[in-house]
Amino acid sequence: MTETLEKTAPAAEAAAAGPEPWAIKGELILNCNCTVFCPCVVSLGQHPPTEGYCQAWAGVRIDTGHYGETDLSGLNVGLLLEIPGLMARGNWKAAAYIDDRASPAAHDALVKIFSGQARGTTGLFSVLVSEFLGAESAPVVFETEGKARRLMVGKKIKGEVVPVAGAAPDEDIVVTNTKYWMGPDITVATATQGRVRAFGRVWDFDGRSAEICQIDWHGPGK
């Protein structure tokens, strides 16, 4: 009995300690089926998507990051999101593609972060996502060329987004000081390519709404 208690004590202590502290800084791009700039950014999910439902892919470039002692710097993540109506009402479906360069520890950490298990900034996923379709290891490439950003996840996702041109050609159109969960400043963009062939979904969102956001996420606290 004593031996059993000694073996289970470390596991119990780890569970009591809760999620590891984590942080990610980098950039996120997103392309959805909205015909004009996504109304969720300023309505915080209280206004429906332009088509009444949301289908989207996203890419995250992690410039610097960690989960506990596990380094996440230099890795990329691809996401698939499907929301049946108002974003704030939940019932989302989601899936993640984890950079195949990630170590086993980094892979597990990113699954915890992007499924909401790690709490903090992405903790809302654990509340809003009713069906997590899965997390797959895949080659996830996030490229920047001029103002264009590209995400390639094998043959699953092929996307490119560019900022919408403003009156001053060298300045992007940016919605600032929002309470949007991704970050307060969102660059208005459009997709020059938005192809998804994943989890039975066949989507093409060329010319549809897109966003570019500098991210500074952390957890497990708010």
Structure description:
- The chain is α+β, with helices and mostly antiparallel strands and 222 residues long.
- Helix content is 16%, strand content 46%.
- Strands 1, 2, 3, 4, 5, 6, 7, 8, 9, 10, 11, 12 and 13 form a 13-stranded mixed beta sheet that branches.
- A hairpin with an 8-residue loop joins β4 (76-83) and β5 (92-99).
- The radius of gyration is 18 Å and the shape is globular.
- Residues 1-16 have low confidence and may be disordered.
Fraction of residues in helices?
Answer: 10-25%
Mean pLDDT across all amino acids: 90
Question: Largest sheet, described in full?
Answer: 13 strands, mixed
Number of strands: 13
Continuous helix count:
4
SSE string, helices as H and strands as E = HEHEEEEHHEEEEEEEE
| Contiguous runs where pLDDT drops below 50 for at least 5 residues | 1-16
Report Rg.
18 Å
